[in-house]
Amino acid sequence: MFDNIRADLAAHKGDWGSQGFWAMVIYRFGRWRYTIGNRWLRMPFSLLYKIAFKAVQVVAGIELPCEVNVGKGFRIDHFGGVVVSGFASFGDHCVIRNGVTVGLRRTDEPAAPSIGNHVDIGTGAKVLGAITIGDHVEIGANAVVIRDVPSHAIAVGIPARIIKKGGTT
Length: 169
What we know:
By secondary structure, the protein is of the alpha/beta class. It contains 3 helices and 14 strands. The chain is 28% helix and 22% strand. It is globular.
């Protein structure tokens, strides 16, 4: 847990006051509590996690449940309006900004995006549904992504159109 927190601090450029960093600390704590095998010993840690999770939601406007699979170097730039579904997954060195939603396309379909490595998601973007985002992808501000994005591409617009880096698709 502490190695991951040190890596998260480095990803947030050493800024202890970053709301994104604190959201990651609570996220890492929530993941760590599952390593406690005995249910009765885990219960007080679960209660502490739920209180801290709610505090981060209220104070920072970031909802990052511990059920999300997050890789190394994950960074939340800027606070406010960040919602990530517990069904989502992120690779290593991803960046998301304020106003980003990564989640379900329909409430009756519990499937969220699988996001690759080195993905940069711009302010206000919505990435929805059972889709796959490849590695080294940039998602533009306010884009609405509802279909797969291949590696080394840019997604822009509503609904997002996919542009291969260095050309068009």
